[in-house]
Queue: 3 jobs
Job 1
Amino acid sequence: MSNIKFINQEHIPIEMHKARIVQKINLISLEERIKANNKASNNSHLLKNEDVFLDMLTDSGVNAMSDKQLAAMMEADDSYAGSSSYFKLKEKINEMFDMPYFLPIHQGRACEHLLSRVYVKEGMIVPMNYHFTTTKAHIELAKGKVIELLTEEGLKEESDCKFKGNIDINKLNELILKTENNKIAFLRIEAATNLIGGQPVSLNNMKEVSKVCRENNVKIILDASLISDNLYLIKTREKGYENKSINEIIKEISKCFDIIYFSGRKLGSSRGGGICFREEQDFLLVRNLVPVYEGFSTYGGMSVREIECMRVGIEEILDEDVISQGPIFIEEMTRLLVQNGVPMVTPSGGLGVHIDCTKFLPNIPKEQYPAASVACALYIISGIRGTERGTLSEDRDDNGEEHFAPMELLRLALPRRVFTLSQIKYAVDRITWLYNNRELIGGLKFTEEPETLRFFFRKIRAYR
Ligand SMILES: Cc1ncc(COP(=O)(O)O)c(C=O)c1O
């Protein structure tokens, strides 16, 4: 992003791209939004996109693509096996992450499925900074258990800590000390940790955790789905890295890990995903499952057009103008909301802005899903769709008891290069109005509750 200041000294994020293909969006009337929300059973995942004005549900697969990505899709080499598009991608990945082995896999959770199948066995644990919904589901389906090792700051909605995604090294050492040999399937670090507000992990923390893992023979895996936001935040927040290039920072990150996987829908702004391996032995274990679940190992369930697009998208994360756009817009939107008194997760991170709904609706208890209530209300008053990231995004435990999330967040994702500053200002205005009229919002209760990843297909209604 360009460092431009106006005459009045105002700093605003200036887009370093221009729009050449656009999509029309609709702002349907309030009455129509109420009907659409009822039809979707108060679940933003079940709304039709044509009924949504600003779609801030997620950044997955909805970041804007570049002209170069679209052009590369036309050159794709279509073949079941040995496509040259695959070899071009593999070469790019090897060069970026300095890892010799690579498998394309059709999306992030499919990588998690294969890694859990190979490494997680009944009774094993998987320590990590914090879980992601699909990661936890796959580990638990393989009968393993997630152990979270975030530092205390990570779970504070408001904090001065620049790296709230960091792992607490003392907790890690204690866990290793008290765990039987071979019971740790692997340790996972998630870049720009999604469910706690897109909060970054420092490179020094990755180095420290890696040292402990290697000293104790624990495999260490990076979920790099949101690495582009994390890279930018390391470069701008972490002492010692301000003068390093993004390429140098990626190389230092890679050295800390044995395996790196990612959702290409987030990283590289396209579709798909992939897993990089340092050791041939790990590569072979996972590769042998690919034809069973994904397809041949040179397309991994993806179209070759997506493979070409991913290659260009991944190369583009070396460009600071590209990777700064998300975090800078998120910072600006968070700043405007904080200025208007709306309780927010601070400092801002990657992926989107995160509203602290425990403070937004202090009278609605966790069992009435305050963040999902705010999500419904916001859609009704503005046509903006976000997603709940709190207790409703957790599944019940084996006894059917609620697992209360430590934070109740409404996430409004800002897919990269999609929204303009005037649209951000519209969102800020509507959220502020809702906050000032929050006594209108009540709680919710389930009418239909799936057992696994319940937030996707749940049906829910007003509590009263
Ligand atoms: C951190 C993280 N890991 C994994 C995934 C799963 O990726 P996908 O949506 O491609 O299955 C996501 C998706 O949102 C994510 O945010």
Job 2
Amino acid sequence: MDIDNEMQEGMDELHLLIILFAGQVWRGATAEEAIGHIAKYGELLAPAMADQLDPAAGPKASFFRIVGRAMWNNLPQPAQDFRLTKLSEPGRNDPCFCGSLRKYKHCCARMPEFPIVPAMMLEGLLETMPRKHWNKLAGSSIGRDSMLQVVLMWQQEDCHEKVAALLEPWFKGEGAIKNVDADLLDILLESYVVLDRPRKRKSLAQAAIARGENVARGIGWQRIALMEAEAGNDDASRRALAEAQRADPDNLNLGLLEVHLLITSGNTTMAQERAKFWAMRLAKLNDPDLHDQIAWLREVVLNPQAAMMQMTRKGGDDSIAELEKLLADAPPIACHYRLKPSDGSTGPFAPDAKLGKALKDWNAAFPSDPPSLTWMSTWNEAAWDDADAWLALLREQPLLWNSFEVLDDLVIALDGCGMSWVRDELIPPLLERALALFDLVLEKQGTAQLKCEWGWHENRPALRLLARKAVDGMESSDQEERDAAFGLMRRFVEQLNPHDNHGFRVRVVAGLIERGLAAEATALAARYPDDLADMQYTYALALHVAGQEAKAREVALSALQEYPKVGKILLAESPRKPRKDGREGYTPGSDEEAWLYRDEHRPLWEKLGALAWLAELARKGR
Ligand SMILES: [Zn+2]
């Protein structure tokens, strides 16, 4: 038997002795009776402990008497309102309590007390007390530290029902909730979160606000702030947090919570300001225990998204941390697709036998939720309900990292994970990988210049990933990244997928105009005479900039006539934003279509000084 096992056995035996001892005291035994019982039966009940004793040190019963005495001294006494009552020490020349018959000063006075702490005894006592009597502890003189240690331990062991059963009686009734019980209050509120009892959570938080001393009141408000944030009520959440800070200005956790809520509700700039404030305030306290908090707040100031990612990793969101690790360890890209190009097109992206087999497992494990045929994007929350299964597959079959279907599924799942910082951290490398893989496949199959059409549903995961990379990249603050993304979108429209719009054509035409490539812009726009208002107006702009004035006027006049609302709202100084009709997308000819065009393209018209030209045509056309 190894040391660990021996220790464990000893601990189990001690636990048994504690329950036995506490049970006797609970039923009314005196100190002498309870200690005498342990001395008598200790060797029998705890053979592993007894075996470890040095026979030369004296009779084993003496040892168990010492253990029993330590138990009594650390046991919250039910008959004394759960206070500790220590046995008095014998006089130095009196016989020792252990029964050795030696003088105390020559015996146990020289020994350290057997290592038992009140929390161990309290736990044993609770185990032996019928639950219906647990309410006797509420508001008693019991040491709050021991209470805390016990409930924290239960919390760690996921015994949240027990935590709630023990703590609920503490906050029943109408009495004030004292600051000394604030930690217990917080733990009970937390157990309601885990047990998914929102009504109890809310009414306890409200009780703390109504009849708590200031720290308890602060905790009540803090919980309300969290609940409002969960419900998406950012304003109410902020108000509750302000109340919490007013009630308990010294609670440093509130600073962290405030910053956290600001980031999750998208108020990044404000979060950075507040993080700066709290970091300075905490730093002034000069407390080494606050080091981690301060470091995190400073990280928020520099990079809020990365700071939240840090917290997600540490906070035990295992699936996200695991996915991040697997992605970092993903094998180099390799081509596992077989294409049969024909007619200038790659044909469908068919996985080879090996990847096809792995994908069967993947599709069985991953709750896929691809967008409907016409939509480009969607999100998937269900994937996180049982992420272990598909994470295990990714670990066991790294080949899956070379599948567009898998990469697409992961991006859609990350969009549904509800954490913007996780999206920002993990989606870009997935898209990067998708683009590299796409180029590799086309190169290996000798199809680098061909079309890869949306019409083949097998191609959609890859195309969706490429389109996403282009769209995201064009939002970048970095000019080089924006140019690369524009190049990709142009390739998407001009080479890969010329037969489907996705709203990209007009963006490419506008991008070409913006980059001084008006001739290319007109050539591209001319290919799509049937595209709607946005394309016709932008085509007119391209022609005007390219100096093809006659054709420009003709296209502009026809656009103004066919889509008058777009022209009107584009030219208006400060038009009113139309209300959404509640449906996704917009209807051609609607105010919303006009508004969207203005919103996206007016800056370019302004930049090129073309608004006056269009206004003039609009006047003449009327
Ligand atoms: Zn002794």
Job 3
Amino acid sequence: MLTERRKGKSLMKVLLVYPLHIRSFEQPLGVLYVSAVLKQHGHEIKLFKLSEQEDWNFEKEPSVVEKSFLDVVHHFNPGIIGISLLSTNFHRGQLFAEWVKKNTDIKIVLGGAGPTVEPEKMLSQSKADFLCVGEGEYAALDLVQALEERSDTTRIANIWSKRNGQILKNEVRPLVEDLDTIPFPDRELIRDEFENGNIEWTSFISSRGCPYQCSYCHNPYLQKLYRGKGRFTRIRSIEKIIEELKEVKSIYSVKRVTFSDDTFTIDPKRILEFCSFYAGEITLPFQCQTRANHVSKEIFRALKDAGCQEVHIGLEAGNDRQRNKVLKRDMSREQILTAISDAKEAGLKVATFNIIGAPYETEETVWDTIHLNRLAQPEAVYHTIFMPLTGSEAKDICVKEGWTIREINAGYYGAVFLEQPSISPRKLIAYQYVFDLYVYCPRWLYPIVHLLRFLWKTAPPTEDRRLLGRIQRTIANQGVNYLKKVFYLRSDWSYSDACKGRKKGINDFLHFPTSGERG
Ligand code: B12
Ligand code: SF4
């Protein structure tokens, strides 16, 4: 039976799918917010997510996930299945939808950052019936209720649908103006993750909508999508955030807190006030991310006094042209260096975010990024490979230039999705491999790091099991792991999942281009 009647209310069972493993440092709040609103209106929700093992092996053994997923579908018997996707895991969304439709005629809706920027592609190239563009809480509610009442589902704001092979589109509804009106994310769906100790850093979000224009990010796309639909940057009240923190702290075992806001210090006055409340009432260590032009010594001191341990700051590119003209970061080297030194002076650990392989990147500009990090000496450097995400201006540049863009079906650790003439995929992968060694090793060790980079650049793909290739990869791996151990011992860092991967062997992260593509 798809729907039940309870306390006079008609309930629909909704199975939400998160096609990844819940990470210990950041949880998928979007899907938990959707659940909270549906539950508030009486619907019954279950979450299907992957175990760490299933996530690692997904590409090799999807049938294992298929079986456990279909078991849940048969037992729970939902009226609709909602799949939360980023652009990177659309292929997983396609599989889940296929598994459902192979066995049942349950309706499927896709939602999340991926479907928001690529609705046409994701709806037409999957077996889903509906797709939610943008904020999903109330759109999902309207869809579920329309299905339940068997009323028209084709005119719901944000919801696109498919009928006879045609895609029926709808505009987005105004943004939720007062974020305080949305119930707290439904963390009951991931209670097991708290109980089994997987969640190291519990995620919260205190604002939505970043006002900046970075060319590689989806925010400028959202700004256009929501033009005329309300204030884009919205901030929750301090009272509500503190109330949520207290509630979560009282229910689950919370060790540390992550604020998933794009720019946590977007409103400097509010953040100072927030810090004083947090220090008095919450007293849990936390981390956040911000921009170098939205901080000051005073803010860093306040963050530190409130219990902040780490701040993540976007450095992104050392070369001024790359940073400001291509990536549109709108900030100077001086701003970045000052922010990092102020944060360190306040006693905070700093991690920088860096992108390599953005449009027009060359070896020289990669070195500019290494040098700026060497100057700044943050405690950690996250160095990811550029992804030409649909909806971003940076992807438009790549398309205009006629460069080859590959289907994005993995994260940006070791996978290259853009081929441009100024730097080859192999070179990029090799730079990413040793990037932090260049930042942290003394210069006299550079010849060894260059050698390791060369070995990695020319290493055969992992599938190549010939002895020589294996030896080459092993030397590169052992060398890099050894130097990282000596110069990059930051095991208590929040992005420990990435570090765990490093310990396992960097090969696990790499998607090698074929040998013909070497630079
Ligand atoms: C926390 C986070 C993560 C977490 C959790 C991911 C998640 N699904 O939430 C982790 C660590 C796993 C993660 C990983 C990555 N991330 Co991330 N991440 C974020 C971050 C900072 C916050 C997400 C969040 O909580 N947002 C707040 C909630 C309220 O918004 P939301 O998630 O979009 O959800 C709303 C709607 O999308 C919708 N919705 C969401 N799910 C569903 C489901 C249904 C059924 C419906 C109807 C609606 C719906 O309703 C929600 C409520 O309004 C965002 C930036 C941001 N501000 O969103 C980036 C972001 C989502 N990440 C991004 C990227 C690129 C990545 C990585 C690829 C990076 C990498 N490592 O390579 C990986 C992906 C790894 C992989 N294997 O696929 C991009 C995605 C762009 C895109 N086009 O897909 C973002 C938008 C950052 C950016 N500015 O570019 N990330
Ligand atoms: S500051 Fe960060 S979240 Fe904001 S537009 Fe730039 S990259 Fe996106």
